[in-house]
Design goal:
heterodimer; A: about 180 residues; alpha+beta; five-stranded antiparallel sheet; 6 helices; 5 strands; B: about 290 residues; alpha/beta; five-stranded mixed sheet; Atg5 (chain B); ubl conjugation (chain B)
Chain lengths: ~180, ~290
């Protein structure tokens, strides 16, 4: 079994402003944790940049899913930068993540986020460690077998780890996740 | 006849004579003299260059100093690669000493990982050791160890220091032997395998070439074939990096280098993994153009 020579890549652009982006009616002060279904319905991926916005306010997020042949699990690599190329530090990326997901990250079941070299691009990315992936994915797979439903491993895994680092999946992914292959 | 254990010692004590020069555009209060050091092949740049940092910071103002980084002939040096690998890959065909340029500003964010402290080096080192054991033993050996054993591996490596001269190495020979013993007391467990097998599950290796976009090649590769024959270094290259090898009747275009030497392609990979791995338990292999004399 060889390691994949490619990777899945998702980019999205977001306008960073000082007031927190309002999500489905909740305000920044409420700090309520949205159930996953609502989170998935949120407006995403603002690919259109209005001309009145200063370019240094737009942040480009990149998410790559690679396969670790050593641990035989998927690994999420991510980074963010301004359009002029200046990278964001982890703490700046962290500020864009919703409170409830911050809690989830702090509770585990993953070890840490650290900066590592992307094995294909050779550039610095942040990585969510895969050591405990089997631990949290096993119940997902077991449950899907119980209710006799095919679960797309990558999509389920992404829906668990993605929001923790600011990656939100559209509902259409959820539809794809339960289709027969 | 060289004992296998002598190989372990030779690898551990390997050194590279290096000359550090401050980048000409750095702002200094007076002229900065170059600084010479014998760097340990098996360690990491940010772990063994405290003396270099202190030397240059003496002639600079505090406000002109931010994170240190190193460069060789325009290429930023990745501190998370072992020193011996960086040298073999980038500078082995040039005359000694290895000339490295020191920078204190304009950190190249796109190319280099930050190294905020020695803890970052420890975290990186231990994560490599763990990944190597995931390949060799499905993580069973590393997970069975106590935290103090992990610490002992790190302490053994951390105490390998740069020196100024071979004399300094000799006078501290006894102390140095302790670090080697300290490290190998634990590392030997990571080099064991079940009696019924002929080797590890998979061999931890990475192959580096400067001619490709990709930083390295790493794949699953077993040390033993289905028929029980031991795979060789040549077998590995034929499978994962065939361009490294000369064509049947063609001229040798590349050197396959580990720790500054070219092992015979017939060498069993299992033996190489047990004896020529770096302290992180990986075989870091450089493919470099054959030097034209």
């Amino acid at each position: 079994m060889d390691s994949s020579d490619g990777y899945m890549c998702k980019m999205h652009f977001q306008i960073k402003n000082e007031t927190v982006v309002s999500r489905a009616g909740t305000s920044a002060h409420e700090q309520t944790c949205l159930p996953m279904e609502e989170a998935l319905e949120l407006p995403l991926d603002d690919f259109e940049v209005t001309e009145s916005t200063a370019t240094n306010e737009v942040i480009k997020y990149e998410y790559h899913v690679l396969y670790s042949c050593s641990y035989q699990v998927p690994v999420l690599y991510f980074r963010a930068s301004f359009l002029d190329g200046r990278p964001l530090a982890l703490k700046d990326i962290w500020e864009g993540v919703h409170e409830c997901y911050k809690t989830r990250l702090l509770q585990g079941p993953w070890d840490t986020i650290s900066q590592q070299e992307h094995p294909i691009l050779g550039q610095p990315f942040f990585v969510l460690h895969p050591c405990k992936t089997n631990e949290f994915m096993t119940p997902v797979l077991k449950n899907s077998r119980k209710i006799n439903r095919n679960v797309n491993y990558i999509t389920s895994w992404l829906s668990l780890v993605g929001p923790v680092v600011g990656l939100h999946l559209p509902l259409s992914y959820a539809g794809a996740a339960s289709q027969d292959e | 006849m060289t004992d296998d254990k002598d190989v372990l010692r030779d690898v551990w004590f390997g050194r590279i004579p290096t000359c550090f020069t401050l980048y000409q555009d750095e702002i200094t209060e007076r002229e900065a003299e170059p600084y010479y050091l014998l760097l340990p092949r098996v360690s990491y740049l940010t772990l063994v260059t405290d003396k270099v940092k202190k030397h240059f910071q003496k002639v600079m103002r505090q406000e002109d100093i931010s994170e240190i980084w190193f460069e060789y002939e325009g290429t930023p040096l990745k501190w998370h690669y072992p020193i011996g690998l960086l040298f073999d890959l980038l500078a082995s065909s040039s005359a000694l000493p290895w000339n490295i340029t020191v920078h204190f500003k304009s950190f190249p964010e796109k190319d280099l990982l930050h190294c905020p402290s020695k803890d970052a080096v420890e975290a990186h080192f231990m994560s490599c050791v763990k990944e190597a054991d995931a390949l060799k033993h499905k993580s069973q050996v590393i997970n069975e160890m106590q935290k103090k054993d992990h610490k002992q591996l790190w302490m053994g490596l951390q105490n390998v220091v740069s020196t100024w001269s071979s004399q300094e190495i000799e006078t501290t020979q006894r102390v140095k032997q302790d670090r080697f013993d300290q490290f190998w007391a634990i590392n030997r467990k990571l080099m064991e395998y079940p009696a019924e097998e002929n080797g590890f599950r998979y061999i931890p290796f990475r192959i580096y070439q400067t001619t490709t976009e990709r930083p390295f090649i790493q794949k699953l590769f077993r040390p033993v074939a289905a028929d029980g024959q031991l795979h060789t270094l040549g077998d590995l290259l034929r499978e994962v990096c065939p361009s490294a090898l000369a064509p049947e009747d063609g001229e040798k275009k590349n050197q396959v280098m580990i720790h500054g030497i070219e092992p015979m392609l017939e060498t069993p990979l299992q033996w190489l993994s047990e004896h020529l791995s770096y302290p992180d338990n990986f075989l870091h292999i450089s493919i470099i153009p054959q030097p034209t004399d």
